[in-house]
Amino acid sequence: MEKQTVTIYDVAREAGVSMATVSRVVNGNQNVKPATRQRVNDVINKLDYRPNAVARGLASKKSTTIGVIIPDVTNAYFASLARGIDDVASMYKYNIIMENSDENDQKEMLVLNTLLAKQVDGIIFMGNRVTDKLREEFSHSRTPIVFAGSVDDQQSVPSVSIDYVKSTVEAVGKLIKEGSKKVAFISGSLSEPINGKYRLAGYKQALQQAGLKFDEKLIFETDYSYEAGIKLASQLKGTEISAAFVGDDRLAAGVLNGLTDQGVKVPEDFALITSNDTQVAQLVRPQLTSITQPLYDIGAVSMRLLTKLMNKEEIEEPIITLPYGLDSRETTQK
Amino acid sequence: MEKQTVTIYDVAREAGVSMATVSRVVNGNQNVKPATRQRVNDVINKLDYRPNAVARGLASKKSTTIGVIIPDVTNAYFASLARGIDDVASMYKYNIIMENSDENDQKEMLVLNTLLAKQVDGIIFMGNRVTDKLREEFSHSRTPIVFAGSVDDQQSVPSVSIDYVKSTVEAVGKLIKEGSKKVAFISGSLSEPINGKYRLAGYKQALQQAGLKFDEKLIFETDYSYEAGIKLASQLKGTEISAAFVGDDRLAAGVLNGLTDQGVKVPEDFALITSNDTQVAQLVRPQLTSITQPLYDIGAVSMRLLTKLMNKEEIEEPIITLPYGLDSRETTQK
DNA sequence: ATTTTTCATGAAAGCGTTTTCGATACTTGC
DNA sequence: GCAAGTATCGAAAACGCTTTCATGAAAAAT
């Protein structure tokens, strides 16, 4: 016995009303006589009627679904944002279609298009850079979008993040103040604005404030992985470098563990500050001093912003900067 | 100028064919003369036509979307599974609606229902227990479902996981063989079959094989968190217990760090084996010896199984058990 | 040359809702 | 009691696509 799906029409017939009325009670429209509402609700329960969201979406042109483009769910940083996004999304009755992009240009285009095809009401984009093609696609579509945990360097898209320049100035400044003359700057690709533009600027600014000269050789561009950190650690050993600012926690954990495994004492011989305050930073020993970010909130606020955009509400400020902190743990003097 | 969406009808008119023909070329149906196909494709490009997936879904009764119920994306274990799921899902052109359940019964029911309302073609469920209500809901619906990383203890639902009993026997066996007479069993709620039924059974079996007596006092039931581990560590210190099997990596990391911080030497004074082989296990120092699970594959295989179910293909074996391993790292003798 | 098959296409009926617009039935005010 | 307003409801037209069925044309078989 194939379960025949019960439609709004069945309910209407059974309750002796029109589809319009059923639709009204389902959607909480007030123009229904209480008695009728009751009758319809009874039938709904009796028949176990569940509105078909797809049909609803077609008729209303709203899918109550938003698309989330995430580099990799497996990355704790992005996963935390995602959690914030999801929580406020469900608060507002939206569902989330999540797509891993691997920060691959082609894949990003692809998922963006399928998201648009699915008629998502809005999109949250996570990633460290935006290609021109992608930006163009964004502006073409009528679908609102917000960047979470990153800024469009043209500042043309609503976004929420922390102040990467200032936080880096502070972190590097601390390293210098605690006695390091040679502070390495370790990050992912410098072609990503967050690194090449903001963090690097902060690094230089901190140097300048301390009257130190910028040295190209202290800049290490690598990828965001634990392994890359381990490898970097061997390069670092035996140099004059005695501290490092690192743009990613897993990378930092690699550097730390690599250093420690080689007998370098952290923080005595080498100080370290990382950037994302992911749980990783607290799991390793010694615990990583880190810039702290309201990860969950970045996601949550992004989603909240998106709901406003979708409602065409007036937005006071589309580029939101959330407060950050600097938590001194065990890889700096204190 | 509000961008007027271009529909299949516009393409049809412009190309001088019927909607049916356009639909055919869009869907790769072979019954179209190459010349016509070409003409239609040209118009599609010219007009930048993108099929509306919602309308498509309504007409075809397929959403090409699957629902994923995950306890918490922020948990590395589940995130890894999710990644596997997503990769093969997109391989098969499915999109994923992801819902965090927090393993909360009520929330699970809720998300299941919205998933069903959205007409997902299939569901992947992650979680450690299934309430009867949920099970009933599953069986009511015609939507195929598979459990990833857990088993329905009634074995009535397709699932993919590892053999929790055998892997635990092996892990606990190793601990005993290496000299521990008192091995603690530390896990999350015993009401979850994975703990109370399978792992515990494995634990007892290992004891029995070694001729050891089961001792209620060695069973520690807590929650899966780093903090819980830290707390547990103080309880453990000073007892005769000299080893522990732990059901979760973050929990294990907590125990390890807690022990170490109190001056207990691991593995010399206390040996530890954890269960999920999440990256956490390798980040901590000493690195946690762990049962290894093919996390990504569990997700991937689950999704593959689901595609078969959705295609109504013949399934040889709906309860899939993937191979596990035991990686001796630094929290056991070797 | 005629009959069959096969191919290519179009007309139109859904798919299950929402929503507009008008109609009817009640209230209310006077 | 009657006009005017208001609350309640229904008919039916979308929404943008897929899919069945019929049809005519072209190809193959006789």
Q: If you had to describe this structure to a student in words, what would you say it looks like?
A:
The structure is a homodimer of 334-residue chains. Chain A is an alpha/beta fold. In chain A, 45% of the residues lie in helices and 15% in strands. In chain A, β9, α12 and β10 form a beta-alpha-beta unit. In chain A, α5 packs across α13, α8 packs across α9 and α10 packs across α11. Chain A is elongated and about 85 Å long. The model of chain A has no long low-confidence stretch (mean pLDDT 93). At the A-B interface, α4, α5, β2, α6 and α11 of A face α4, α5, β2, α6 and α11 of B. Chain A binds a DNA duplex (30 and 30 nucleotides) through α2 and α4.
- Count interface residues per chain for the largest interface: A-B, 49 and 48 residues
- Report strand order across the widest sheet of chain A: 2-1-3-4-5-11
CATH class of the largest domain in chain A: Alpha Beta
From the helix content, strand content and strand pairing of chain A, which structural class follows? alpha/beta
Specify the number of helices of chain A: 13
The 3D shape of chain A can be described as elongated
Measured as a percent range, the helix fraction of chain A is 40-55%
**Oligomer status:** homodimer
The CATH architecture of the largest domain in chain A comes to 3-Layer(aba) Sandwich
- Main sheet summary of chain A: 6 strands, parallel
Order of helices and strands of chain A: HHHHEHEHEHEEHEHEHEHEHEHEE
Number of strands of chain A: 12
Mean pLDDT of chain A: 93
Q: Please identify which CATH superfamily of the largest domain in chain A we are dealing with.
A: Response regulator
